[in-house]
Design a protein that fits this description.
It is a single chain. 62% of the residues lie in helices and 8% in strands. By secondary structure, the protein is α+β, with helices and mostly antiparallel strands. The protein has a five-stranded mixed sheet. The chain has a two-stranded antiparallel ribbon with strand order 1-2. A hairpin with a 5-residue loop joins β3 and β4. The longest helix has 40 residues. The protein is elongated, with a radius of gyration of 31 Å.
């Protein structure tokens, strides 16, 4: 038996090991989060300090709450497009109202235990949403790589790319900015290959730090982040801002914030759970944690918050064991904002654009798409349509279109219906026919009983989606023979098909063919005549 003193010593050793692991992991996550918080804020059209505020709240508020123990929250690239559109349409002061309302909705959904239902969203829609966001980030931040202002709409960004190339080639200053941005992307792509140091010093920090150092030492003529200070950047919503909630457009944006932030957070939680062997995520509690964090962000007028897979995976890979690591990462962000805000003014805009271009490129599931196209072509179509819709319209409408297409695809795939023919033979037995999708012969095969009814069994799910096909097959049945239509093989029969079958039986009677009436109990029992 282990002595009590030995047990206490072991517990102390385990506690010290856990604290050391969480402390080191929190520093790694802080270094990853710092440039991403600033970059997402700048791309969203808000002061960079607001991105750091959201990261702080993600650590100190959401990080303390139950749900997922190792998932890290903060501003995410996935909401950049939607936030930018909201700020441009409704103004920066209304952003806090939007985020606060979205947070309260998340709290309500968590209390109603709706978190688990987000797992029912098609993965193809989520991948399409992320691909669309990635495309918008890449095309939009391509202008930021050269210190140029991007057009306001997605189509304008795409149409403006040839002009962007000409403008870059015709100006020395834009070429310098492009070199800084492209160099940042190169470092982000190469640094993770240096495994010995990549685990200790994350690529985003190295890339942005090198860019800031080179620009500062060489005094290059590139734009840098404008710093206002934390208190100057905060914009808590006022009474007149809350009145905007009566507008339909504002309410639609709130719903978009809520659904997309919730889906991204819970899908991230599922991914993080696969990375470690610890406690699994409670989806309802995690949704309430995200809602609490967003409510606080809304009160402060900051960016919306979601769980971020980049920071979460860095947290797990750095050896985090408890939620302490994500709380401490929020502490380090707060210390940085309070003590070293002037450091933000050293960061080139082109470097942050490079970080977001790289992040956007990685959001596009290039490898997964090839496999989907080979094995699940319908899923690939849903992914593609969702991504294109996000680029051409906006994030909310694109996701709604993707969800609608996914539902239609599933309904189409599950609504298969076909006819099986059974020919009566001379010895009184029946010969099973093969599955028929059309082309039924008009004459009875040799050896069958003359005048005996042809038994036709309908199998599958009879819905309006397959009604034209079903009616075509019924029309091809022999007109000079009695037919017994057996509906016992149907797993589902909707109203449209029921009405059509009743009409088919009525037409058969009008044509003078004997048969049972197709209605009520006869239809439920599955045997009708023609």
């Amino acid at each position: 038996m282990r002595s009590p003193s030995g047990s206490i010593s072991l517990e102390r050793t385990t506690l010290r090991t856990t604290l050391r692991s969480d402390l080191l992991a929190s520093l790694v996550v802080f270094l990853v989060a710092l440039p991403l918080c600033v970059g997402v804020a700048v791309a969203s059209g808000v002061p960079p300090e607001l991105g750091l505020v959201t990261g702080i709240v993600g650590g100190l508020v959401a990080g303390l709450l139950p749900g997922s123990s190792l998932q890290v929250s903060g501003p995410a690239a996935g909401l950049t497009v939607l936030v930018y559109e909201a700020v441009q349409t409704h103004g920066l002061p209304v952003l806090g109202v939007l985020v606060l309302a979205a947070g309260l909705l998340q709290l309500a959904m968590g209390a109603l235990r709706l978190g688990r239902w987000f797992r029912a969203i098609s993965v193809a829609v989520v991948q399409g949403m992320l691909a669309g966001i990635g495309l918008v980030l890449v095309t939009g931040q391509a202008y930021g790589l050269a210190d140029l202002t991007a057009p306001g709409d997605a189509l304008g960004k795409l149409r403006g790319l040839p002009g962007l190339v000409r403008e870059v080639l015709g100006s020395a200053e834009t070429l310098v900015a492009l070199a800084v941005g492209a160099g940042t992307v190169l470092v982000l792509a190469v640094w993770p290959r240096v495994r010995a140091v990549a685990r200790l010093v994350p690529a985003p920090l190295v890339a942005v730090g090198l860019a800031a150092g080179i620009v500062g030492v060489c005094e290059l003529p590139v734009a840098r982040i404008e710093v206002r200070g934390l208190m100057g950047a905060l914009q808590p919503p006022g009474g007149t801002d809350f009145a905007r909630l009566a507008e339909v457009g504002v309410l639609g944006t709130v719903v978009a914030f809520t659904l997309i932030a919730s889906a991204e957070s819970l899908f991230s939680a599922a991914a993080v759970d696969r990375m470690h062997d610890g406690a699994r995520t409670d989806y309802d509690k995690e949704l309430m944690a995200q809602g609490t964090g967003n409510a606080v962000c809304g009160v402060l007028g900051a960016l919306p918050m979601t769980a971020v897979i980049v920071r979460s995976s860095a947290n797990v890979q750095a050896g985090a064991r408890t939620k302490l690591s994500r709380v401490l990462h929020g502490v380090w962000l707060l210390v940085f904002v309070v003590l070293l805000p002037q450091v933000l003014g050293l960061i080139p805009v082109a470097a942050l654009a490079g970080v977001l271009v790289y992040a956007g490129w990685r959001l596009i599931p290039w490898r997964e798409f090839a496999g989907l196209w080979r094995e699940h072509r319908g899923e690939a179509v849903v992914l593609t349509v969702t991504a294109v819709a996000v680029v051409l319209t906006n994030l909310f409408e694109g996701v709604l279109l993707g969800l609608l297409l996914a539902v239609v695809k599933s309904a189409w795939e599950t609504s298969h219906v076909h006819l099986e023919i059974e020919e009566p033979v001379g010895d009184g037995e029946q010969r099973d026919g093969e599955r028929r999708d059309g082309g039924i012969p008009a004459e009875a095969p040799a050896g069958t009983l003359a005048g005996a009814p042809l038994r036709v069994r309908v199998v599958g799910n009879a819905t309006f989606l397959r009604l034209p096909k079903l009616l075509d097959q019924l029309a091809e049945l022999p007109h000079d023979r009695p037919v017994v239509l057996d509906l016992s093989g149907l797993r589902h029969l909707d109203r449209a098909c029921r009405t059509a079958l009743e009409g088919w039986a009525a037409e058969a009677k009008c044509a003078g063919r004997a048969g049972a009436d197709l209605a009520g109990a006869d239809l439920a029992e599955g045997v009708v005549g023609k």
